Amino acid sequence: MAACSESPDGKFGERLFGITCSGCHLDDLSGGFGPGIGPRSNAHLNLTDEQIRGVISVGPGAMPPFGTVLDERQIDSLVLYLRSVQVGSGS
């Protein structure tokens, strides 16, 4: 699994997403097996950062629980990455 600390280029969350999440949510976050969580979704409106941390940790529904394989810093990096991608979301 990826290292626990943020990389100097700030891309740790993006790389971690590619490793752990893109198989279901796709690289562009548009959704596949998992729902779309990117800029053209309404994901930025529906959940707080803390709720997203919970979803990643617990894995509701068909989503596996990543709280058993990712530590808090890794989960925080994923949340930061998701929010950075969703910043331009207007809908």
Short description:
With 91 residues, this protein is mainly alpha-helical.
List the helices and strands and how they pair.
Elements: H1 12-20, H2 22-25, H3 43-46, H4 49-58, H5 72-86
Helix pairs in contact: 1-5, 4-5
Would you kindly provide a written description of the structure presented here, covering whatever features stand out?
The chain is mainly alpha-helical and 91 residues long. The protein has one domain (12-86): Cytochrome c-like domain (Cytochrome Bc1 Complex, Chain D, domain 2, Orthogonal Bundle). The chain is built from 5 helices and no strands. The longest helix has 15 residues, at 72-86. It is globular and about 30 Å long. The model is unreliable at 1-5 (pLDDT under 50).
**How many strands appear in the DSSP assignment?**
0
Largest sheet descriptor:
none
Alpha-carbon distance between the two ends: 34 Å
Q: What oligomerization state is this entry in?
A: single chain
Reported CATH architecture:
Orthogonal Bundle
Question: Helical residue percent?
Answer: 40-55%
CATH T-level fold name: Cytochrome Bc1 Complex, Chain D, domain 2
Give the H and E element order: HHHHH
CATH H-tier superfamily: Cytochrome c-like domain
Query: What is the global morphology?
Result: globular
Write down the domain tally. Answer: 1
Question: In CATH, what is the class?
Answer: Mainly Alpha
List keywords for this structure.
mainly alpha, 5 helices
